[in-house]
Amino acid sequence: MRRLMLLRHAKTETDAPTGRDRDRRLDDRGRRDAAEIGGWIGRHPPFPDLVLVSPAVRAHQTWEIACEAMKELAPEPRVEILPELYGADPAQLLRAIRTAEVTGPRRLMVVGHNPGMHELALTLAGSGGDAAASKALKDNLPTAGLAIFDFAIDDWNNVAFRRGRLVQFVSPKLLKKISGD
Predict the structure, then answer these.
(1) Which of 4, 25, 110, 111 stands 20 to 30 A from 49 (CA)?
(2) How far is residue 57's CA from residue 60's CA, in Å, rounded to a whole number?
(3) Where residue 181 falls among pLDDT bands split at 50, 70, 90?
(4) CATH number assigned to the domain with residue range 2-179, chosen from the 4 options 3.30.420.10, 3.90.230.10, 3.40.50.1240, 3.30.470.20
């Protein structure tokens, strides 16, 4: 069994001071949401063994804040920055996921961007997953949204479209709705 966690970066500023999209940083809401989703991850094992992060500033910041929030509750995973995650489409993301087999993690997280992450989440979902999570994920993978899939495989090379079981989908907005805030 392998678990894949797809985490979209949190909310960002509209423009970076440099004018480059890759340099956009998290805004105040993004920092709060990254901490909230990290805290949720820390309270809901199993935790990722390896995290693949886009080189964009907002993806780094999302992971760093989320990791800090989960640190007291979860062991810190290995982290790899993969340039190919920036602007990746579902096929490129799938190739990056399959490269994880080299280090053999059982649980993998990818921190990246839409539209590729949302499209990947939709194409990975097979049958038998959480119906409410599928419905919530159908329209969007929002900023700081987390989609969790299980695959009945022993090797990341065997991850394929329509073969995952969507176990859970959470976002800061859904967490607020649940808590009544």
Answers:
(1) 25
(2) 5
(3) low
(4) 3.40.50.1240
Question: Collapsing DSSP states into helix, strand and coil, what is residue 124?
Answer: helix
pLDDT in tens, 125-172: 887 777 888 888 898 999 999 999 999 999 999 999 999 999 999 999
- For 62, residues 6+ apart whose C-beta sits below 8 A from its C-beta are 7, 9, 10, 26, 30, 34, 111, 144
Q: 3-state DSSP call for residue 46?
A: coil
Query: What residues form DSSP beta bridges with 165?
Result: 150
What are the residue boundaries of the structural domains of the chain, listed by start? 2-179
Cβ atoms of 30 and 12 closer than 8 Å: yes
Rounded CA-CA distance 78/61 in Å is: 16
Put simply, whether the predicted model's pTM sits higher than 0.90 gets the answer: yes
| 177 close to 26: Cβ distance less than 8 angstroms | no
Residue 42 and residue 96: Cα distance in Å, rounded?
24
